[in-house]
Amino acid sequence: MADQLKRRTWWQRTDILLAIGIVAIVLMLIVPIPAMLLDFLIAVSFSLGLITLITVMYMGKAIEISVFPSLLLVSTVYRLSLNVSSTRLILLQGPAFNGKIIRAFGEFVVGGNYVVGIIIFLILIAVQFIVITKGATRVSEVAARFTLDAMPGKQMAIDADVSEGLITEEEAIKKRIDIQREADFYGAMDGASKFVQGDVKVGLLITVIN
Q: Can you give the residue ranges of every domain in the chain?
């Protein structure tokens, strides 16, 4: 009983920390932050993106990372808040802007040549918006549609296996839950991909302003 209370307390604290983090992300859209803190938050964003990518690549099934759509939404809002914060500092400080990561990345990509920078920017627009975002959105739509269409057939197959004694009732319940979780996952991914597509459009506009 005491262990259960400890677990509940831990999960409640985790929810509170998550809520505080989301509120802090929203406040970043409004409250100016110093350049040093912005550099740190950008580094955190890069690290979280890399960790998420590696984790997803090593997952065998979609239901093993069912939290991914929610994580994608939170990370998208976080990245958007970083874009807004960096744009605010660039517009306010101008040439005096001393964001180390943004300056280093800009000098590395552009190499001091603005013509090269414009060409690279146009290529990145084509790759990110036309290829990656639209492709990912289409894949999510098709995956969600086929998963929902296949649900009745999978349910009937489970019922048939139970009737023939191939699986137990407990195994059938577990399989039904997995099917429902898989459908929920792909449905959530369909919505999250559209959210990300809008974020890409806003991000491109912010990049042009910067």
A: 32-209
